Amino acid sequence: MTWLITGGAGYIGAHVAKAMASAGERVVALDDVSTGIAGRLPAEIPLVRGSFSDRALLDRVFAEHAVTGVVHLAAQKQVGESVEKPLLYYRENVAGLTVLLEAVVAAGVRRFLFSSSAAVYGVPDVDLITEETPCLPINPYGETKLAGEWLVRATGRAHSVSTACLRYFNVAGAAAPELSDTGVFNVIPMIFDRLTRGEAPRIFGDDYPTPDGTCIRDYIHVADLAEAHLAIARRLGGQHAGGGRHDGGDLTLNVGRGEGVSVRELADEIAEVTGHRVEPVVEPRRPGDAARAVASAARMTAETGWTARRGVREMVESAWEGWCLRHPEARAE
Predict the structure, then answer these.
(1) Could you read off the pLDDT of 80-102 as tens digits, one per residue?
(2) Where does the pLDDT of residue 242 fall: very low under 50, low under 70, confident under 90, or very high at 90 and above?
(3) Marked catalytic residue, from 11, 89, 121, 141
(4) So what's the pLDDT on residue 246?
(5) Residue 333: which pLDDT band, with cuts at 50, 70 and 90?
(6) What is the rounded CA–CA span in Å between residue 152 and residue 67?
(7) Residues β-bridged to residue 48
(8) Is 141 a catalytic residue?
(9) Domain map of the chain by residue range?
(10) N or C: at which end does the chain have fewer Cβ atoms within 10 angstroms?
């Protein structure tokens, strides 16, 4: 089999590409490198520069590389930006996905893995979010991910494509410093950025109904996430963790650790790892933040045998090494 990974030079994409290639899968990456970094990929993984919504390019790539499966990671993914630019998000995340799926069907590709998000759930008031928890997204980003799931599943049913929609929770860490997240959009790099600039980390709200008053989230190491993609790719290919074979089917799966960590606990962990022991400042709550968002990954384990193996400490340590590679001035004296 040959897998096309869209967004393959991105933070998550490069981890997925390397994990799959290291396990013996044939991989080709497609990325417009607007946010991706070509240098993240080893020389043995071909990188095609371009957009997943370029039909002519897709047809050529599918034919030249004999693609038999797609891992679709490329997307617009900033929640705040999606509120300001909903047309951009629907064009890229839904209309662009339509073009990709049309190319998949035309090429006779029979396996499609879609990168979804816990944002599809909105702000559910439950202890553990299962795949049956109602999907009530509260921003255009979450809406486009849910619409993407609908489109993927409908295409799979109509054209005999085995599909999987993976609902990621909060991704962090790095398998190697050079693969780390270069953006400052997620909570761990946001705290790193403020500490590097000599500013206190921010906590948005400390009056939630949680043990320490701050929001609780489920964090997953990006290397565990990459291994989850490998497990699902093999599941869609008819392989099971137990060695048997069966049809890939139509899967919708949470990918998380099933363990909650509060924002204050995370800030304390970062202080311990970095040596920057700066008391966070508390600011007002942000609209739409749930008090608790923790995944049940039981279905993922049952379907593939996969479980997350890395803890929050390893996420923070590996993320910090990557941050210091680009910001050597950040290290505490």
Answers:
(1) 999 999 999 999 999 999 999 99
(2) very low
(3) 141
(4) 39
(5) low
(6) 18
(7) 30
(8) yes
(9) 2-171+219-255, 172-217+257-330
(10) C
Question: Would you identify the CATH topology of the domain 172-217+257-330?
Answer: UDP-galactose 4-epimerase; domain 1 (3.90.25)
* pLDDT range class, residue 332, cuts 50, 70, 90: confident
Q: Are 3 and 71 in contact (CB under 8 A)?
A: yes
Q: Is residue 195 pLDDT above 70, yes or no? A: yes
For the question of whether the overall pTM of this predicted structure is more than 0.85, the answer is yes
3-state SS, the chain, equals CEEEEECCCCHHHHHHHHHHHHCCCEEEEEECCCCCCHHHCCCCCCEEECCCCCHHHHHHHHHHCCCCEEEECCCCCCHHHHHHCHHHHHHHHHHHHHHHHHHHHHHCCCEEEEEEEHHHHCCCCCCCECCCCCCCCCCHHHHHHHHHHHHHHHHHHHHCCEEEEEEECEEECCCCHHHCCCCCCCHHHHHHHHHHCCCCCEEECCCCCCCCCCCEEEEEEHHHHHHHHHHHHHHHCCECCCCCECCCCEEEEEECCCCEEEHHHHHHHHHHHHCCCCCCEEECCCCCCCCEECECCHHHHHHHCCCCCCCHHHHHHHHHHHHHHHCHHHCCC
Non-local CB neighbours of 328 within 8 Å, separated by 6+ positions: none
Task: Confirm if 26 and 42 have CB atoms less than 8 A apart.
Answer: no
Domain 2-171+219-255 has CATH 3.40.50.1100: no
Distance CA 114, CA 100 (A): 11
CA 251 vs. chain centroid, Å, equals 17
Tokens of 90: 């629907």
Using left for φ > 0, alpha for ψ between -120 and 50, and beta otherwise, residue 24 falls in: left
Can you tell me which residue has the tokens 């509060």? 262
Structure tokens at 172: 């962090």
With a CB cutoff of 8 Å and minimum separation 6, the contacts of 241 are 231, 304, 305, 306
